[in-house]
Structures are given as structure tokens and as C-alpha cells.
Amino acid sequence: MIQEQQWLLSLGTFLPLVGVLVMLFIPKKDEATAKGVALLAAVATLGVGIYTLVKFDYDQSQKLQFFTTNKWISPIKATYTIGLDGISLPLYILSMIITVLVMIYSWNHVPNPGNAKAFFILMLVLQVGMAGTFVAQDLILFFVFFELVLLPMYFMIGVWGGENRQYASLKFFLYTMFGSALMLVAFIAMFIITKNHATNPEAANFSFQWFNENGPGIARNTAIWIFGGMFVGFAVKVPMFPFHTWLPDAHTQAPTQGSVILAAILLKLGTYGFVRIALPFLPQAAKTWAPIIAVLAVIGIIYGALGCLAQTDMKRLIAFSSVAHMGFVMLGISTLTPLGINAALFGMVAHGLITGMLFFVAGSVKERYHTLEIKRLSGMLKQMPHLGWILGFCAMASLGLPGLAGFWGEFPALLASWSPATILTDSAMGNHELLYRVLTVVSAFGTVLAAGYLLWLYQRTAFGEPSEEFSGHGDHGHDDHGHSDIHDVNVFEWIAWTPLLIGIVVLGVVPSLMFKVMDPAVQQLTSVFGK
Amino acid sequence: MIAFSSPIIDYHALAPELVLAAGICLVLLVDLFVPAHRRWITGTISGLVLLGALLPVVTLAVVGGDVRDVLSGEGISGRYVVDNFALVLKALFLLSGYVVVLLSTNEMDDGGYYQGEYYVLLLSSVLGMVMMASSRDLVSVFVALEFLSIPAYMMAAWKKRDRKSNEAGVKYYLLGVFASAVMLYGMSLLYGIAGSTQLTVIGEKITLSGPQTGIQVVGVVFVIVGFAFKVSAVPFHTWAPDTYEGAPTPVTAFLSVASKAAGFVGLMIMVYLAFPLARDVYRPFLWVLAALTMTVGNLVALKQKNLVRMLAYSSVSQGGFILMALAMAFTNGSEESSLRAIIVYLIIYAATNLGAFAVVIAVARRTRSAEISSYAGLFNYAPGLTVMMTLFLASLAGIPPLGGWYAKFGAFRAAVDAGGGWGYTIAIIGAANAVVATAYYITVMREMWMKPVPEGADTSAVKVPASLVAALTITGLATLAFGVVPGIIAKVGSLTDLTGAFHG
Description:
By secondary structure, chain A is mostly helical. Chain A has helices spanning 7-24, 31-55, 89-106, 116-135, 139-148, 150-160, 165-197, 208-214, 220-237, 246-253, 256-281, 283-309, 314-334, 338-369, 380-383, 385-398, 407-418, 422-425, 433-462, 468-471, 491-509, 512-526; strands spanning 65-73, 78-84. The relative contact order of chain A is 0.10.
């Protein structure tokens, strides 16, 4: 642990709250000021994030840095412990970047029914929850941050969402709540059991360090149950098949900004939980659960892909593709190998950039055409060449084209699942090698399907001639929202999107930028599983 | 004949009760001499009296030290005491009472109610609660319980010309008296077995062994049933929704928070002091009550269209979580974590629920309705109240970082701490219920945030009177603070030591 600049992470996490406080005193009508303050707070937060990037000691990325621990709720032994290592750094920074970009995009895209002040406040609160989850090094603190994102996202979908928003937001909320209630019981059980079995029960606390040291000592049968509780909590968030059904509804109904944040960061809270909490604390149970997770992940890949092929709505298609992509991430995690987990972490960031970008594009398409029905769209490349090309680029990145970020999440995950960790192939404990090989082949087939549905989507929406309905020559061209709305990428969109597009290329060409940071931490984490 | 020797009275320890008693007389007198249009002053005085009674509680806490026998002497000591447990709960009752006064001020003044009498009854009821916290004897427990209940029966029927309010009062009265009778019968059995009314003595005798086992079981069960009525545990909850809906809203707030808490305090005192060796009876009984209370309360709450009724069922279900912690007391050494969990739960729940009722009252001033549908689009014309209500509902649902999560956390912890099949099963049932509960809290949020304002509704800004603003500030800050830094309240919880418990 490196205990330098202990204030840095707290500042980066809670700075958005300062913005919220200031905004509370800005009258509702003064939208420009409210937006300005929010953006300023987000940019300042990102500034702190960049400073963190600069100060981070990359040679010791397996250690927790900027580590600090303080009393918080002493009677229940919960502490305010935060720190950052190579696993959480990319996600921590990504959350800050996404928030800033989403705010820039929102500058002239506040969805109905308006009220920019409340909308921007929710985004800032979301940012606190997301960043906090990635730096928390105490289970209770983690839980609080993990839950903090729930209400803002609920309101974002429910107030600013599409027609079916109330149903979608309720579904999102109840699924997540169900998962986290079981997760909390699992956390408490894990604490009490480790405390009762420890040689020094007085020292028991909720810090990750305590569970790293004492969790593996829990009897295997008990650990399997506790893991089960956590599994539900995290799997709902990811979401894994069969807990995924909230996702297409939430994504389809959420406003563009909500979809982007949801896809880019919130889903990652679940996978991050698996990597950070479930695997290292309960390695003995992970061994039992890994094949189950792997099977569910691959079902998710195929199911998501087939779901995509059946969609008529562009946004819903992207949502189902999320299910498939998160399947690859979970497959990587389930191998319990450094390669697989590295791939998973990379996949998380890549999916954040690419799918976030796809949702941005979908939002802009919707704004221009007032529909996302794939049937009605065509000829985007002719009407709006820039937007069309960006959509094509993102589709390519999403299907895992080598040279773009998506590739480095999927390919190593497949590689890792071909030869999973030795404890999974150890014949004494049940040899799962054959299972993983079959899964590898099946999920490789999933990448083919991905190419299929993405190219199909692109071909139908971007190629050909613009449909009569929107081209301005047809009979329908002069209704209320005729083709006058149809314009190419505007300046706010350019500013919001360029960093993501650059990120996709840079990480695709130089993946070691991230692998180098994550690998030492991942190596240390997987050391509990042996060689 | 034993000569009567008069007990020695510790006036400092008795001061909170004395201040309240003096305050009751003062309010009565003032009410006599003040002209009708200035009767609101009785409310102000009542508030001051409650805060005044809080002073000695604070000084007693500061002086600290050992347990103080309020009345000491031969055969009298140990029956009415002031310990940390009593102090924390007295403070809770007095503060809840104060917030209820704040909620009542405008309601009583505008509604054309009898004001002086209302406040006298309110103060009397609070006095009963304050006594309950100190009682360690069958007689004083029973007297305190009646003292706090009887004024509440009248307060429930305070809207004299309203049929629903009359129904509320009568229903509450009849079932309450019935419960008291059952409890008293149980107490008489306990006394018969132990030969003493002192709870710690009874605790040594109720061992569920020997020739009187059958009678002991009946005694324990009857006492618990009596309290189960007071805390509206399923299946003894049937009075609660009707009473809550019919009573004036501030009274409902009072019943669902303070009165309920007092019931739980009485139940805790009985379980911890009188029944510690009777675990085989009360654990399965309370366990089933807890499971039923959580589940049934929630399922019925889901269907409610009236917010006050919904809050009534939600308070039934919240009581289930407290019962969950209590049922698991004295299992694998979990009695301390159970006790703390319950006290913390009561405090957080009081702040949150009073806050929710404050919003209900503030909104009803405009809409004249407590139907959930009347909250449609509230966000558009009362964003402040909407945000407050959202905070309170989220806290009731147990969503961090609001107080409720910590209360639920403590209850789960107590159950898991006890462990075994009993503990884990009830914890899982609780977890499932926590999810179901969010569904109906969310319904209200959805109504406020996402539904359009009904046509023709007055959408000018809602004016919230100062006393309600004060109540909202107190409860809102408490709800938020308890959630973000639960340390402050956990500390209070860990101070509490129920004298006589944990030594048997």
C-alpha cells in the first residue's frame, strides 16, 4: 500500500457533490448557469482524475495507491478505506471521462421534459457513486456507493425516458434491488463467519484486506452459498443470462445520456464486483462457480447475438449486443487465469467506449429521424456522411475488428477459455477442460453472429438511398418534423464523441497501454488460484 | 405486617417525568385563560415542555455513571431505573413528541380542533412512553402502557365530525383494551409463578421446566400477544390501517412512530429481562410473527391507493424487521447485536417516518387528499417537497446513503449473527421483503416525478408553514446524517445497556 496524497481519491470522488451543492441554489429557470456549474464540476473532477493518472506509480500498479483508511462506523467495524490499483484505475478514469462527455452532449440535448438543473444534478450524483465504487476498499463502503447509483439512474430513465419509461425504470430498480439485498446478506455472513473463525476476532473489519486474508479460509461448502448471494447481486448488474431481461427495456427507454452511462459504467460495477470481491475473497467457491458462470456467459453471448438479429429497433439491438459483449467479459473472468481477467478488464473499458459511442449515435439518429426503426432508416451515408461513417466505425469496433479496442477484449478471452486455470482442469476436482473448449468454440461462433448483426444493421441503415420519407422529395417530407431536422454531426457532438473515437483507436493499436497497468494487479489477484 | 418505609426518590433521575407532569398542568391552565383565537399558544408551550424535559435527560447522560434507581428502598429498588437504555429511548420519545407537535401546530389551528386538550393528551401519552423506558416491573410496565395508550385512543378520534375518525378511535380502543386484558392475564400468570412483579426475578423463575411449564408458556405467549397488538404485528395488526387512515395525520404519525416504538420497548424489556430463559417459546413465536409481519404487511401495502394507508402497512412491515432482530435475541450470543439493532432501527425509523408524514401533511394542505394519485406531477410544482419525500421513501426502502439502509443492515446482522437455520432463513425472508417493499415506495416516487399534473390542479408553488419546515429540516437532516455517517447513531446504540440483561 502506498499512502501518499491520501486526499486525492476522496477529492476525486466527492468533488461532484460540491457542484450539486452550488446548483441547489441556482434558480430552475437559469438553465445555462446550472449546466455551466455542473460541467465545471465534472471537468474539475476529470482534472483531479488526470492528476491521479500522472501521479500513479505504474511500476507498482499491483499495490493500492493513494491509500487511506479512517474510522467510519466503528461499532460495525466498517471503515472508510479507499485506494486505487491497476484494476480500478482505468474504470475510475473512464467514469470521469464519460460523465464530462455526456454533459457536453447534453448541452443542447436535454431530453423531454427538460429541467436541465435536475438532469445535471443526477449526472453528478451518479458520478460520485461510480467513482466511489471503484475506489472503495471496504465492503460496506462499496455497498453504499454501489447502491448510490440506483436512484439517479431510476429517475433518469423514469423521468426523461421514452414512452414505456415507467415500466422500464421500475423493472431496472426492482431487479437491481433484489440482487443487492441478497448481496448484502452475503457480505454480512462472510464477515461474521470470518470473524468467528479468525485467530484474532478483535481485528475483524469490513476492509477488503481482511477478507483477502481470511475469506479463503471459509469452509468450501459455506463459501459456495455466500458466493451465490454475491453472484446474484453482481450478475443482475452485469447483466448475465438469465438476469438480463431488465437491460433491453432500460436501454431502449432511457434517454441517450442514461443509456451511455448505463452501458459505459454501470454494467461494469457488476463485473468489477466479481473481479474485486467474489473471486479473491472466496477462491474456493469461485472454483465451483466458474464453470457455471462460463456456461451462463456463453449462453449470454449466443442469446444476445440471436436477440440482436431479431430486433427491429436500433437501440434495442445495441442493448442486446451489450448482453453478448458482457458475456465475453464474464467468460474471461470465469477462466480464473491472468489472461482471461486481463481480457475481461480490457473488455469492460472497450465495451464502455464502443457501446457508449453506439448509444450516442443512436440518440442522434433518433433526434434527427424521430425513429429508430431499422426498416425506415436508410442511406444515412448519403444524407449525413459523417454520422454514417461514425456509425460504421463503431460497428466495426463492436464486432471486434483487430486494430480497434473491441478486439482486445474478445480475442484474449477466447484464448484464455481454451486453456482455463489449472484448478479447473485438475482431474481430482473434476476436469472442466473439455467444457471450456466447447464453450470457446461456441463463443467463437458468437463473434461471427456479432459480425452478422452489426453489418446487417449498418447495411440497412447507412447504405442505399435515403428513404422517401426523410429525403424531402416524398409526400411525407413536409410534416411537422420533416427533413429539416436532418443535419450532420454538430459541434457539441463532435466535442463529445472525438475523445471516445480516439480512445477506441488508441487502445486498439496500443493495447499494452492498459494491459501493462492492469497485469501486475491481476497477477497478484489470481495468485490465490495457484498456477 | 411489614412496616411501610417510604422510598427514597432520586429527583434528578425523575426530572424528565416531573417536567412533563408540570407541563401538562401548565397547558391545561393556559388553555383555560387564553381566548380561543390564541389557543395555538398551547402548542408552542407543549413543544417547549418536551424540549425542557429533554434537558434533564441530557444532564443525566452527561453525569453518566451507574444505573440510577429512581425509587430506592427495601423491596422497591430495581423496579424503576434510569440507565443508558432508558436515556436513549426517553430522548427518542421526547424528540418524536416534539416533531409531532411541529406537525400538529397548523393542522390543529386551521382545522378548528380543540387544541389545549389535544396537547394535554399528547404530553400525557409521551409521559407514558418516557415511563415505559424506565420500567422494570410488571406493574410499572402495565401502567406505562395504559398511560401512553389511553390518550392515543382519544387522539385517534379527534376529528369529531368525521365518521372515519370515530371509527379509527373506536377500533383502536376496543382492540387495544382487548390486548391489554390478554396481556394482563398473562402478567398475572407470571406473577403467580414468580411470586414477584420484578422482571429480573421473573426472569429467573420462567425456565420452562418443572410442573408449571404449561402455565409459564401461556403466560409468556399472552404477554407477547398483548404487545403484538400494540406494535401491530400480523395477525394482530387489523386495527392499524383503519386507525391510521381515519385519525388526523399528525396523530397517525405519532401512533406509527412513537406509540409503536413504545410498544417495542415494552416487548424488549419483557423479552430481555423476564423471558431470557424462555427462548424455546418466544423465539419460534416471534420468528413466525416477524416473517408474517414483514410479508403480509408488504403484500397488502402493494395494493394501497391511499398514501397514509400505504404508510400504515409499510410501518407494519417495518415492524417485522424489528421483530426479526428481537426473535433472534439470545441465540448464539446475539443478544447485544439484537438490542443495538432494534434501538438503532427505532431511532432511524422514527426520523424517516415522521419526515414522510410531514410531507404528507404539507401536500395535503394543498391537495386536501392523501390519495397516491393526488401526488401526480408533484415535482413540477413542489420540487422541494418531492425531493424530501423521495429521500424519506428511499430511506424506508433501505437504499444507501439514507438512514434506512443502516437500520436494515443492523437487523440483518443480528439475524445472521445468530446464525443457524433460524437466523439465515429469516434473513433471506427479510431480504426478499426488502425488495418487495421498494416496489410500493417506488410507486409513490413514480407518481411524483413521472406522472403529469392532473388537469385543473393548482400548480402555484406550495407554501409550507414554518413549523412544517422545521419538522422537515430536523427529520431530513437526521435521515441523511444517519445514512452517511451512521457512526453517530451506532455510538448511541452501543451505549445502551439494558440493566439486568446480559447477566443471566
